[in-house]
Amino acid sequence: MIFDLLVPVDLATDLIERTASTPATMRALQSSLAPAFLLVGIGSIMNVMVARLTWVAGRIERLEDKAEDTPSDSAQRELEWLCQRRQLARRAIMFSSSAAVVISIVIALLFVSTYIDAKIGTFIAVLWVATIACLITALGFFLRETSTAARGSESFRN
Predict the structure, then answer these.
(1) Which range marks the domain in which residue 95 is found?
(2) Quick one: the chain helix, strand, coil %, rounded to 5?
(3) Which residues are within 8 A (CB) of 53 and not within 5 positions of it... i.e. 6 or more apart?
(4) Distance of alpha carbon 107 from alpha carbon 28, whole angstroms
(5) What is the 3-state secondary structure (H, E, C) of 5-63?
(6) How many folded domains does the chain comprise?
(7) Are 144 and 48 in contact (CB under 8 A)?
(8) CB distance 57 to 121 below 8 Å
(9) Helix, strand, or coil here: 114?
(10) How far is CA 33 from CA 28, 42, 67, 94, 110, in A?
(11) Angle at 151 between CA 148 and CA 152, to 5 degrees
């Protein structure tokens, strides 16, 4: 009885009718494939970024432990270099995570848009562009981290 008051029967019937169409569901799934593959790619890139960040963080901890016993100018320079790399990697991961969240919203909206009458194509396009912008920014930070890593490690070795 209370359920009948909360959800009108016409609304429930309309929802079932809209989502019962197999061709409409197939269109929704097909339109979600490209963003889903992009999401997989973002996850793979993030895996590499997190691995690098983990290595940098571990190296910082080892250097800080060593610096407590015998501080050196070379170790201090390496710590500064590693902290710069850590900051770049963190930013890359943050923007990659943002891209993953936005593309997940795009996937959900593409699926929902099959069943609603509202025209949300422009909104979905804006979210797609935002995803790509976040991903480009993340890759830019990742490029800076890898170039910083390639350029600086040899100058700290004794």
Answers:
(1) 2-156
(2) 90, 0, 10
(3) 86, 89, 90, 93
(4) 9
(5) HHCCHHHHHHHHHHHCCHHHHHHHHHHHHHHHHHHHHHHHHHHHHHHHHHHHHHHHHHH
(6) 1
(7) no
(8) no
(9) coil
(10) 9, 14, 51, 24, 10
(11) 80
CA pair distance 134, 127, nearest whole angstrom? 10
What is the band of 70 on the pLDDT scale with cuts at 50, 70, 90? confident
Chain centroid, CA 67 distance in Å:
35
Angle of the 121-152 helix axis to the 22-69 helix axis, nearest 10: 30
Nearest Cα to 135, choosing from 81, 97, 83? 97
pLDDT in tens, 127-153: 999 999 999 999 999 999 999 999 886
d(CA 157, CA 74): 8
User: pLDDT band for position 1 (50/70/90)?
Assistant: very low
The answer to whether residue 155 scores a pLDDT higher than 50 is yes
Query: Do residues 110 and 35 lie in contact, with contact meaning Cβ atoms separated by under 8 Å?
Result: yes
Only one residue has tokens 């269109």, namely 27
Query: Of the candidates 82, 79, 74, 81, which has an alpha carbon nearest to the alpha carbon of residue 158?
Result: 74
**For residue range 16-29, what is the model confidence (pLDDT) as tens digits?**
666 666 777 777 77
